[in-house]
Amino acid sequence: MPISWTTNVDEAMSDARSNRKLLLFDFNAAPM
Amino acid sequence: MESFIHQNFVPVKIHIKEQPQLFERFGAQWTPTIQVLDAEGNKRHQFEGFLPADDFLAQLRIATAHAAFARQQWDEAERLFSSVAEELPESDSAPEALYWAGVARYKRTGDASALGQTAEQFKRRYTQSTWAKKASVWAA
Hints:
Chain A is of the alpha+beta class. Chain A has one helix spanning 9-19; one strand at residues 22-28. Chain B has a two-stranded antiparallel sheet with strand order 2-3.
Protein backbone atom coordinates (compact mmCIF):
# COMPACT_ATOMS: atom_id res chain seq x y z
CA MET A 1 0.00 0.00 0.00
CA PRO A 2 1.71 3.23 -1.11
CA ILE A 3 1.55 6.26 1.12
CA SER A 4 -1.43 8.42 0.20
CA TRP A 5 -0.23 12.00 0.52
CA THR A 6 -2.45 15.04 0.43
CA THR A 7 -1.40 18.63 -0.27
CA ASN A 8 -4.37 20.22 1.48
CA VAL A 9 -3.31 21.19 5.00
CA ASP A 10 -6.73 22.36 6.16
CA GLU A 11 -8.42 19.14 5.07
CA ALA A 12 -5.62 17.15 6.66
CA MET A 13 -6.08 18.94 9.99
CA SER A 14 -9.81 18.23 9.86
CA ASP A 15 -9.10 14.60 8.99
CA ALA A 16 -6.63 14.34 11.89
CA ARG A 17 -9.18 15.74 14.34
CA SER A 18 -11.93 13.42 13.12
CA ASN A 19 -9.78 10.30 13.15
CA ARG A 20 -7.61 11.08 16.19
CA LYS A 21 -4.42 10.99 14.15
CA LEU A 22 -1.28 13.07 14.02
CA LEU A 23 -0.23 15.21 11.08
CA LEU A 24 2.90 14.23 9.17
CA PHE A 25 4.22 17.18 7.17
CA ASP A 26 6.88 16.53 4.55
CA PHE A 27 8.33 19.88 3.47
CA ASN A 28 10.21 19.11 0.30
CA ALA A 29 11.60 20.41 -2.96
CA ALA A 30 11.49 17.21 -4.97
CA PRO A 31 9.31 17.10 -8.09
CA MET A 32 5.73 16.30 -7.11
CA MET B 1 6.16 1.61 6.95
CA GLU B 2 3.06 2.52 4.94
CA SER B 3 0.63 0.84 7.31
CA PHE B 4 2.31 2.44 10.33
CA ILE B 5 2.01 5.86 8.70
CA HIS B 6 -1.64 5.45 7.81
CA GLN B 7 -2.54 4.05 11.22
CA ASN B 8 -1.01 7.01 13.02
CA PHE B 9 -0.79 9.97 10.66
CA VAL B 10 -2.46 12.05 8.00
CA PRO B 11 0.47 12.50 5.58
CA VAL B 12 0.84 15.89 3.88
CA LYS B 13 3.38 16.89 1.21
CA ILE B 14 4.24 20.57 1.11
CA HIS B 15 6.32 21.67 -1.88
CA ILE B 16 8.52 24.73 -1.54
CA LYS B 17 7.46 26.12 -4.92
CA GLU B 18 3.79 25.23 -4.65
CA GLN B 19 3.07 26.32 -1.06
CA PRO B 20 5.90 28.55 0.18
CA GLN B 21 3.48 30.25 2.58
CA LEU B 22 3.20 26.99 4.52
CA PHE B 23 6.97 26.89 4.99
CA GLU B 24 6.61 30.33 6.60
CA ARG B 25 3.52 29.38 8.62
CA PHE B 26 5.09 26.28 10.14
CA GLY B 27 8.68 27.50 10.32
CA ALA B 28 10.26 25.04 7.90
CA GLN B 29 13.63 26.36 6.75
CA TRP B 30 15.13 23.55 4.71
CA THR B 31 14.15 20.56 2.65
CA PRO B 32 13.43 17.93 3.49
CA THR B 33 11.97 18.91 6.85
CA ILE B 34 9.62 16.50 8.56
CA GLN B 35 7.23 17.80 11.19
CA VAL B 36 4.74 15.87 13.29
CA LEU B 37 1.91 17.91 14.76
CA ASP B 38 -1.16 17.04 16.74
CA ALA B 39 -4.58 17.73 15.24
CA GLU B 40 -4.63 21.16 16.89
CA GLY B 41 -1.44 22.12 15.06
CA ASN B 42 0.98 21.82 17.98
CA LYS B 43 4.38 20.63 16.78
CA ARG B 44 5.47 17.44 18.57
CA HIS B 45 8.58 16.43 16.62
CA GLN B 46 10.75 17.69 13.79
CA PHE B 47 13.81 16.55 11.91
CA GLU B 48 15.67 17.83 8.90
CA GLY B 49 17.52 16.02 6.16
CA PHE B 50 17.12 12.73 4.33
CA LEU B 51 16.96 9.53 6.37
CA PRO B 52 16.93 5.94 5.09
CA ALA B 53 13.59 4.21 5.55
CA ASP B 54 14.46 2.39 8.79
CA ASP B 55 15.77 5.55 10.45
CA PHE B 56 12.83 7.56 9.14
CA LEU B 57 10.42 5.06 10.66
CA ALA B 58 12.29 5.11 13.98
CA GLN B 59 11.94 8.89 14.11
CA LEU B 60 8.21 8.64 13.37
CA ARG B 61 7.86 6.16 16.23
CA ILE B 62 9.63 8.64 18.49
CA ALA B 63 7.21 11.30 17.25
CA THR B 64 4.19 9.21 18.29
CA ALA B 65 5.80 8.77 21.70
CA HIS B 66 6.31 12.53 22.05
CA ALA B 67 2.67 13.07 21.14
CA ALA B 68 1.61 10.65 23.91
CA PHE B 69 3.99 12.44 26.28
CA ALA B 70 2.38 15.78 25.42
CA ARG B 71 -1.02 14.27 26.26
CA GLN B 72 0.49 13.26 29.62
CA GLN B 73 -0.12 9.62 28.74
CA TRP B 74 3.04 8.58 30.54
CA ASP B 75 2.41 4.80 30.30
CA GLU B 76 1.92 4.99 26.56
CA ALA B 77 4.84 7.36 26.04
CA GLU B 78 7.18 5.10 28.04
CA ARG B 79 5.99 2.03 26.14
CA LEU B 80 6.53 3.71 22.77
CA PHE B 81 9.95 5.17 23.59
CA SER B 82 11.08 1.87 25.12
CA SER B 83 9.94 -0.10 22.09
CA VAL B 84 12.23 1.95 19.83
CA ALA B 85 15.17 1.52 22.22
CA GLU B 86 14.59 -2.23 22.59
CA GLU B 87 13.57 -3.17 19.05
CA LEU B 88 16.04 -0.94 17.18
CA PRO B 89 19.06 -0.91 19.50
CA GLU B 90 21.55 -0.26 16.68
CA SER B 91 19.63 2.66 15.20
CA ASP B 92 20.70 6.27 15.63
CA SER B 93 17.34 6.87 17.32
CA ALA B 94 17.93 4.32 20.09
CA PRO B 95 19.83 6.61 22.53
CA GLU B 96 17.25 9.35 22.04
CA ALA B 97 14.48 6.84 22.76
CA LEU B 98 16.32 5.48 25.81
CA TYR B 99 16.66 9.00 27.24
CA TRP B 100 13.00 9.83 26.77
CA ALA B 101 11.85 6.44 28.07
CA GLY B 102 13.59 7.36 31.31
CA VAL B 103 11.88 10.73 31.39
CA ALA B 104 8.48 9.16 30.75
CA ARG B 105 9.10 6.56 33.48
CA TYR B 106 9.96 9.37 35.90
CA LYS B 107 6.80 11.25 34.94
CA ARG B 108 4.73 8.07 35.36
CA THR B 109 6.14 7.12 38.75
CA GLY B 110 7.32 10.39 40.25
CA ASP B 111 10.39 8.43 41.28
CA ALA B 112 13.64 10.21 40.41
CA SER B 113 15.52 6.92 40.54
CA ALA B 114 14.13 6.31 37.03
CA LEU B 115 16.45 9.07 35.84
CA GLY B 116 19.41 7.69 37.77
CA GLN B 117 18.83 4.24 36.30
CA THR B 118 18.75 5.76 32.83
CA ALA B 119 22.04 7.54 33.49
CA GLU B 120 23.51 4.20 34.59
CA GLN B 121 22.39 2.59 31.32
CA PHE B 122 24.18 5.34 29.41
CA LYS B 123 27.41 4.46 31.20
CA ARG B 124 27.28 1.10 29.42
CA ARG B 125 25.64 1.97 26.10
CA TYR B 126 25.82 4.82 23.62
CA THR B 127 28.50 6.39 25.78
CA GLN B 128 29.61 8.83 23.07
CA SER B 129 26.11 10.04 22.23
CA THR B 130 24.71 13.47 22.98
CA TRP B 131 21.97 11.72 24.93
CA ALA B 132 24.53 10.15 27.28
CA LYS B 133 25.85 13.63 28.02
CA LYS B 134 22.33 14.90 28.67
CA ALA B 135 21.59 11.99 31.01
CA SER B 136 24.91 12.34 32.85
CA VAL B 137 23.48 14.98 35.19
CA TRP B 138 21.05 12.36 36.51
CA ALA B 139 23.81 10.06 37.75
CA ALA B 140 23.79 9.48 41.48
